[in-house]
Amino acid sequence: AQSVTQLGSHVSVSEGALVLLRCNYSSSVPPYLFWYVQYPNQGLQLLLKYTTGATLVKGINGFEAEFKKSETSFHLTKPSAHMSDAAEYFCAVFSYNYGQNFVFGPGTRLSVLP
Amino acid sequence: DSGVTQTPKHLITATGQRVTLRCSPRSGDLSVYWYQQSLDQGLQFLIQYYNGEERAKGNILERFSAQQFPDLHSELNLSSLELGDSALYFCASSVDTGFSYEQYFGPGTRLTVT
User: How far is the CA of B67 from the CAs of A86, B6, B48, B71, in angstroms?
Assistant: First the structure.
């Protein structure tokens, strides 16, 4: 079965610093990859996704992620953190292997310090 | 506001009982997805319907079932409830059936089983 790992259940950065949230996946076929954000007491919102084509994907709120097949990674970055970025971030992978399988990572809570 | 509505917001019930959670997708969206978010198991995809038909199945228990009605709203039925079923249940909708399409999440129903 495919799986998603997110290194670091909690990441703290200072306001204005680089945000780097790590995601690695296991899938034997080309996957679709997603990053979602969840603010407190809210549902999930799609930040960005990779399906095919350009491996560097730009999303909302200044976030971007790069699909690296050789490293089976899809790390999320933002050059300069803002206080409003504090939230839970989930990486997810979908592939047609094992039927239609959509799997989320365990999530990373991002704190932004003033 | 994603345009996806879920009712009720909160539900408290006892073990062994049966509950029904309701979801109305965004106007024009034909696909509905159900997810469970719990502290123990994180975010899990349960099931997807497209235009009234089941399209994909994830980690949905046999005690759980869902359907999508002609007006495209969906219901998730949970029966013989156990303490471990306490979780946040999200519904999401998308315009089409593939997981590459953006999913819009509702605010969730928080189920507490006592």
Answer: 36, 15, 9, 11
Residue found by looking up tokens 């991002």 in the block: A110
> What is d(CA B114, CA B107) in angstroms, rounded to the nearest whole number?
22
Cα gap A55→B56, rounded to integer Å:
27
The string of pLDDT tens digits covering residues A84-94 is: 999 999 999 98
* Cα–Cα distances in angstroms (integers) from residue A41 to residues A61, A106, B9, B46, B110, in the given order: 20, 17, 11, 20, 10
β-pairing, B10-13 vs B74-78, is: unpaired
Show residues of chain A in contact with B41, CB under 8 Å: none
Task: State both tokens at B87.
Answer: 């979780």
Mean pLDDT of A81-85: 96
pLDDT attached to residue B68 = 98
Closest CA to A6 of A112, A111, A107: A107
For B:6-35, CB contacts with A below 8 A are none
Residue written as tokens 């960005």? A48
Distance in Å, alpha carbon of A114 to nearest chain B alpha carbon = 28
Q: Are A107 and B43 in contact (CB under 8 A)?
A: yes
